[in-house]
Protein 1
Amino acid sequence: MHFKRLRLPFAVVVILLTGCGVAVTPAPTQSSATTARPPSMRTQAATLGPVELTVFAAASLTEAFSELGEQFEAGHPGVTVVFNFAGSNQLAEQVNQGAPADVFASANTAQMQAAIDGGRIASGAHQTFVRNRLVVIYAKDNPASLATLPDLAKPGVKVVFAAKEVPVGQYALGFLDKAAQDAAYGAAFKEGVLANVVSYEENVKAVLIKVLLGEADAGIVYTSDITRDNADQVGRIDIPDALNSIATYPIAALDDSAHPDLAQAFVDLVLSSEGQDVLERHGFIKAAR
């Protein structure tokens, strides 16, 4: 797993991952450009010089947006997409502090609203582009012998959550609140799980890594965080619909983007059928349209 051309000008580095550059694809011929690119990728295909488009995106979007970034660059010679992947709360704070950015994609509407309230995104400009849901993961060797949700409350089980300020952390706490009202689980289940939480992490990828490294027996992440690269390293316990939370992801171009046409073109790619297919392939739920 890696970040593509990761730049964190204002962010606290939350995951130690190796960044690598991707070469800009040479401009295709006129005929291939017309036939190979979806409409959303033809806009601004020719640029006057090297351009960096900065996209702030929730950490859970790392793999999917990295792939979309490569597609965007292929359709826009001379453009490099620079990603800042972090917790949505951190990203919204950076936006409101004036960090240079062209596009913001959040893992919940609350942090998008925070950016709107900060004055850099117009009210009503954001669009829901994808959805996600929670899942419990555990280390493949399963040292705690986890099999069902009630096992998370067994004494001695080491559980890791994202911090409550992070969307997935809020959703996880919402799951416990719903379970506490369910006779099959009850308040004791919520109390037992919270007593087992050994750390609250800064984003969902940090939760995943803690479990992968064996520093926790279980954690709550998004279903999209179980990827081809790690699926054989974790087990999963599904959370039933009645207790689950469906995460809503909004996206918007910033009003003060230095490259407004390109920023909107990236948003359009994410919303396009091509973009939605990429997101679905990475485990997200397509936005209903």
Note: Residues 1-47 have pLDDT under 50 and may be disordered.
Protein 2
Amino acid sequence: MGVIRYKRILLKLGGEALARPQGYGIDPDRAAQVASKIRQLKDLDVEVAIVLGAGNIWRGQIGLKHGMERATADHMGMIATVINALALADALERIGLISRVQTAIEMRALAEPYIRLRAIRHLEKGRVLILGAGTGNPYFTTDTAAALRAMEIDADLLIKATKVDGVYAEDPLVNPQAKRFSHLTYIDALNLGIKVLDSTAISLCMDNHLPMVVLDLWQPDALQKAILGQPVGTIISH
């Protein structure tokens, strides 16, 4: 199939990847589909860590619009990411992939606390590592958590897998003729104010020279192409 360019990756998934057709809740069939895509990476002997969002369960903006404290809304979102992490871990185990869930907020009855060296050890042993509860702090998105954890575990690549096949100059749902970028520098991505990744995550990757790829999770072989260094989605790098 080709030479593996990236041996250890961090895969950032939105909560919608596990959602029912209407975009909410957890669909076991969708979780199984995501697990099968991760298996394809493991079959190539790639070390995989995953950070999940929680938009399928809770969106903090809803609480803020009703006067909720930002810290409270964010903590609720962190807990929701753990629910998603447990659902995905179960789907992985059911197809024979050993997984471990670690959380930035301790909940020892459900998962391990996040410990950097232990996380790296799980990857070295071939386990799929799922990192829940974001950074453990309010005011930070799960995109930022993904960038931070990618740096901490010495990942070679951060993949933001969405339902869109890259970064566009305009919303492709509004303008079907919108230009899709095959490559952006970090500075270009920051200046464009792209919505698919927050500026803190991009800045972290820029400062630490970590390449990023934005791609469509559901496009066949998109993840494999990314780890092989083949053209897919939008690459953000120096």
Note: The longest strand covers residues 8-13.
Protein 3
Amino acid sequence: MAKMGRPICEAKLTEGERKSLETLMRSRTEQAQIVQRARILLLRADGESMEEIANKVGINRNSVSLCLSKYNSGGVDNALYDAPGRGRNAEITDDEKAWIISIACQLPYKLGYAAETWTYTLLTRHINENAESAGYLRLSTISRSSIKNILNEAEIKPHKIQYYCERRDPEFEQKMHDVLVVYKQIELQFDEHGNLLPFEDVKVNTISYDEKPGIQAIATTSPDRMPTLFNGCRQRDYEYKRLGTLSLLAGIDLHTGEAIPLVSESHKSSDFIEFLKILDRKYPDGEKIRLILDNHSAHTSKETRSFLVTMPDRFEFVFTPKHGSWLNMIEGFFGKMTRQMLRGIRVSSKQELSDRIYRYFAEVNEEPVVFRWKYKMEDMSIVDRPA
């Protein structure tokens, strides 16, 4: 009995089919796999053997045979294009992805771990160990990279914490409005050239005030090396010595731009009162001194209130909201001071640090800059001119 062989795979092309395949062969935009299959059909129609076709196309004989078999069973289109729906089905369902995301959105310590945030390794281990009991057996072997890809697609970052500042002051809007009214009043006191307008009423001196505690006095342990021809950068020994800290209490006159400092060993009510006394000596009697300041306890303490009683109608406080220190213009001055003078500072004593701080203020006051507030100023409308 004759042995049954595999069916012979032929390619008998019509003239139209040949022209269509030749067009595909010259295409620069068609998929390489389709171009490759078109070449197989053309070579077979020209009488080439499957071994010769495999060598010319650069594939194995089985791939050539499969292409020709598809042609014999369904024609040119069947040989060129894969049937719809082919390929592996997604291994991870939407329900499984949702479960992974729900785990990533929980706190690890509430699931029995010590960590505050997930690492991908810890998250993968937890999912692998608990997938079967949760009814997701397939996820018991899911890899770390697959979990990371699922979370990236959902834009979930379980290893990160993004901080925010909640407005806990119920009077935030009102206090912000009060501060902005002051800034608007000051703005109305200047003409278009930036010159103060004359007023016949009692003058109000407005001071933007804040403290900068904990300024460190740091000394070097070896002299700095100045730039040379061979090294253009100043060099400093990594070692340093802490000499203690100082507090800076400062205000900016929003009418003149003058900066008013007080360097102190501490940051207490008595220090704040001392600063108020400096202001009292600075401005003429009968003129009100208005301070924009935060809600630090030293500003509202019993000691401070007792002092203010002795000077009725001399001081007026306008408080910024809690977590709203950015509304105080002196914050920008402190930032500038840090960049220009405090960053990288080295001194031999706390007294030298104090002297250099006072020197910085003296330099600033040689050419004072009047600060201008812009945020929401266009929304503010004040009919009456300020006192």
Note: The radius of gyration is 39 Å.
Protein 4
Amino acid sequence: MPIPTKIQRILLKISGESLGKNSAGLEADTVAKVAEQIGRVHRLGVEMAVVVGGGNLLRGADFARRGTNRTTADHMGMLATAINALALQDALERSGTATRAASAVEMHTLMEPYIRRRIIRHLEKGRVVILAGGTGNPYFTTDTAAALRATELGVDAIFKATKVDGVYTADPTKDQQARKFDRLTFQEAIDRDLRVMDRTAFTLCMENDMPIMVFDMFVEGNMERAVRGEAIGTWVVAKV
């Protein structure tokens, strides 16, 4: 699939760190700013699903490296994504954006279960849907959850929010000669070992021809400009 010329439905992948102060914890003003950006894009008429990480609260992989059973550690991480999803849902609703939260891990008193057809219906009705719990399975990251849900929900593209303004030939904070790509192919990213997403997620996107827009969400208005088709960030596609 080439770069979409018209965006009607997207999956936004945001890290848990984007909701906290100095990448840790939950900070109300930061959550409100993220919700404001999402709301502005939604008001353009774009259908939005959001996959949120939990690294600001807990990283299951860190606990696993220190001896916690990996399955248990990953389940702990899934619960962290649920906390973030509830915080973001509340901020969106207080700003006037219709929202639903759904989890791959069933927790009926907090949010509804992830059921594909139901989520698509929410999107069609103009609700932002926040997806928590990753894939519901251990050993899979929220990047992989984003790639899976994007494919299932038939979105036009994944919008991966980061702290940098795109994909570079090298780490721009360490290499002053690093060059930013406006667009590149999945194969180029693999050949250059550019870690756009984790390998499982990236392979899923490549096999299903799912375009990825990598952009800096900490520049106000960037998400809206990217959806409008302005030259923001880096597109990763099957063919340039």
Note: Helices lie at 28-42, 60-65, 70-94, 116-124, 142-153, 186-191, 199-207, 222-228.
